[in-house]
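Two folds, back to back.
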Amino acid sequence: MNAVIFVYTIALILVCFAAAMLSVAAYAVSRKRSLIPQAAFFVFYIIDICGIFGIEFLNQNIPYSVESYYEIPIPLLRILSGAGVMASLWVMLLDILDVHDRRMQVIPVAVFVAACCIVIWGLPYGPFRQWLFYTLRQVFTAFGLAYAYLMWRRSDDMPYCERLGRLRNRYLFLWGLLACILLEDWWIILASPIPSPDSGWFMLYLSERNFSENVMMLFVAYHVIRGSLQTLAFRFNAPPEVTPASPVGGAGPAARDDGSKRTRDLVRHIEDQLPAYASAHNLSKREREVLAMVIEGKDNRTIAQELFLSEGTIKTHVHNIMVKTETKNRNELKQDFWSS
């Protein structure tokens, strides 16, 4: 087996393992359910890589037949691992978009699995079958990205649009990577001829690998690892307090949940973003509590009643927050918070 490819594959597996374990650790201290599909994504990706890597390792000393160049080894495992990767990625996306419909979580994945089965057992062996099987993943990813754009364009909720708009650069970069994946698969599987047996080990196994897809995984892993480390760091510096009832920074969203889905999502995103924003602007613990309620849209009187403080004290805290964040009014403060 080529030493470079061996080391490269092991490195990919280690990155996936690190991202999965950090997601689990971050979930253990924060109980954010969104971290579970993150961990699952990398676990399934490890299974996917190991499926390819295992076949390569076992066949390294066996004469290679070019007649099996376009074969899809262990098809059932490839379908299940691919479905796990796509399902985890899809749930991660729906969580960002605040879509909690069970049908939206299940139906697209079921269609993806059905399409994979049709391609594997319904099409004859050849380059088109192999290309279409792997391209189904990119079609599913493109569907997810297009759905995210549609949700962003159709929403008139300022915090929602600001929060999604903050991800614009990542979104465009993912589209670029997706184009690279499609181009690489087209070139290797459809455009290039079958390599001869003396082309070397690397060329003979190239059709089952996609390096652009690996780059996309590393891109996702970077942001997941970074976010998990931030969660762990913030929890270490400001662990949650065990109190019967406290505002943001103490008890979770349920303490202030009015029963509506939008409120639950809003409070969850405020709590996710608040530690980094407060740290960047050096806000005190009390200023963090007041800021969270301001972002929720509560006026000074309501905040004073919930925190058992005078309305004048709340005005002072709001003024200090605006000075530290260099904003002039509440609307500007909200925009700065969601776009930071």
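---
second:
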Amino acid sequence: MKKTPAKPMDFNFAKIRERYFISNIFSFNCSLSSVDFRSFVNGESVGEKAKQCLKKGMFFSDYLDMDRAAKCLRRNFFMDWKGPHVHIISVTKRCNSFCSYCGASAGPFRPLESDMTLETARKTLDFIFSVPNKKIMIEFQGGEPLLNFRAVKYIVEKAKKRGEKEGKELSFSIVSNLSVMDGKILKFLLANRVVVCSSLDGPKFIHDLNRKLLKGSSYEAAVRWLGRINALAIKKKFEKPNAICTISRFSLNYPKEIVDEYLRLGLVRIQVGPLDKTGRAKTHWNKVGYLPEEFLSFYERALDYIISLNKKGIGVYEKGAFLFLSHMLNYQRPRYHNLDLLMRLAYNWDGGIYGSDEARMIANSGEETLKLGSVERDSFKDILNRPLSKLLLLSNFNFLNQVRCSRCAWNPYCHAMPALNLSSQNSFWGNMIVNDRCKIYRGIFKLLCRKLDSRETMWIFKKWLSLHES
């Protein structure tokens, strides 16, 4: 075969059926036939379609656009970083439900003293506003945050006043089981554009089995308020609500039923997430947990059903796949990518500061290894100068510190969180060879690549990306 002057740049690859998925440090990727892949590796001529993809993705050293390469590297290494913009505040450890898999180890038997005080809330805001990022997204968590609505209201009102004064771009969201929602609270959230997110694990028999409310049905509370908020959103009076489906062992046989439940409520964004081995889920893993292969089987059936609905003109989409596809097809890093300290910080009810919400939750189980400091005594500058912070920042670039990740084709689009590694494998770095979350992510990436072989499915995925924000 005729040699081409183009020399391959460094790349990673994975074989999927009879094709090869390749990626590089710039976050670009190509899908090559076996023939084109062998020719590319050997420095020989490839088909025109493959050549154009490889040139555009800067896989050839001879066609390297240095200005474009520098721009991509600046983006991938966060060279314009101004500090995290997502701030997750747990305003209480109390909760009026006792979920079988609660990662935060919250529950109804926590004392009032585990509510965030207004003084701690003020100091938390002082810390957040000391971060030199113009954008601030505040998310309220718990426990059940509406049990300490006083703190939620205080933070929103004070943050808005400070934001106007200091030129910050503010947004708010709250994650609630909605069981103590009422008209007065909803009116406040509406007036202040606080986006509502709740758990919806599927039909009543699944949801109430996973998420037990002390009094009444957690399912009925969730669907009542999700339906009401969604109706307001349709009338352009409120932001559309978000709902998250956490997959437990009890969910594995019901992918279609779960998707249909979302559609019944008028929700087109479905987010089916694997169970984290933290908190109560870790303690009861033999009852609620499963193997990665079991989750992947469920996920493929759910995704297949969602794709089939799209073919019928029903525009439902799966959020996890959407975020991965956004990065893989549009080369855009999701705005809320879960990168410890780089993109987010979490604050416990007592003012403790953590690099992620997962780190905050495992701290509630007694694992304080990943605590960065406290709003009671530390500034953002103090936090940044600590060895743990530097370690967390380094962990976000896993191709630099993980042997398996460094040669993984999915590396540009993936991240193994230290908190989950610590909780499941007793190691900050984890062991990716046997890491369950790594297995799940690799399985999803391979599944998406197989689906992209279909032109019709590719068109559906691209439509998702054109209609929704990442």
